[in-house]
Design goal:
about 170 residues; 60s Ribosomal Protein L30, Chain: A; 6-stranded mixed β-sheet; elongated
C-alpha cells in the first residue's frame, strides 16, 4: 500500500504527537520506502579476465536493472598487466578492446552503448582518438552514443586516454 507524505502527515496530525515526532515518523517511513526501492534495483558485478582486473574497491562493470555501467578503462594489456606501448592510436585501441571484453561479459556489445565519457591527457590527441573511437562506436548504420570528452591533468599509469560507458540491454 502506498501512502503519500501528505497522507502520512494528515494521519499523524490526528494524534497527540509533537511536530518533531511527526517529522521523525515521516522521515522513517520515507527512508523505509527508499530502501525498498533500492532493494528492487539490485546491482550485480560484471567481470572478465579478458580485461584488466580491478585494482581497488571497484568493479569492471555493474548491472542495475537493464543498465550496464563500466568503470573507466585505460590501455592496460590484460595478458601482461602493463600499459601498451605506442601513442594515442594504440592506447585507444587497447582501451576499446578492454571495454569490448567487459561489455561481452555482460552479454552485449558497442551497439547497446548509450553514453561514453572520454578522458584525454591532451586534447591535441582528440582527432586521432576519435578516428579509432568511430570504428568501434559508429560504424555504418549504427547510432553513435552520446559522448563527453574532457582533458584531464593526469590518468592512472600515465595513460593518454581512459574511456567509460553506460549501456542498455535490449528490451525483452
Amino acid at each position: 500500500m502506498l501512502i503519500s507524505p501528505t497522507g502520512i502527515l494528515e494521519h499523524l496530525g490526528s494524534g497527540s504527537m509533537s511536530q518533531l515526532e511527526k517529522i521523525r515518523s515521516l522521515a522513517c517511513v520515507l527512508r523505509r520506502g527508499a530502501q525498498s526501492k533500492h532493494m528492487s534495483q539490485n546491482k550485480t558485478a560484471i567481470s572478465t579476465k579478458d580485461a584488466p582486473a580491478a585494482i581497488g574497491p571497484y568493479s569492471q562493470a555493474v548491472r542495475v536493472g537493464d543498465l550496464i555501467f563500466t568503470s573507466g578503462q585505460i590501455p592496460i594489456d590484460p595478458a601482461t598487466g602493463n600499459l601498451v606501448a605506442g601513442g594515442i592510436a594504440e592506447q585507444t585501441t587497447r582501451v576499446l578492446e578492454n571495454l569490448k571484453a567487459v561489455l561481452a561479459a555482460a552479454g552485449i556489445d558497442f551497439t547497446r552503448v548509450v553514453k561514453t565519457t572520454v578522458f584525454l591527457k591532451d586534447m591535441k590527441d582528440f582527432a586521432a582518438m576519435n578516428e579509432i573511437y568511430a570504428r568501434y562506436f559508429a560504424p555504418e548504420g549504427v547510432v553513435a552514443p552520446a559522448r563527453s570528452t574532457v582533458q584531464v591533468a593526469a590518468l592512472p599509469k600515465d595513460a593518454l586516454v581512459e574511456i567509460e560507458c553506460i549501456a542498455k540491454e535490449a528490451s525483452a
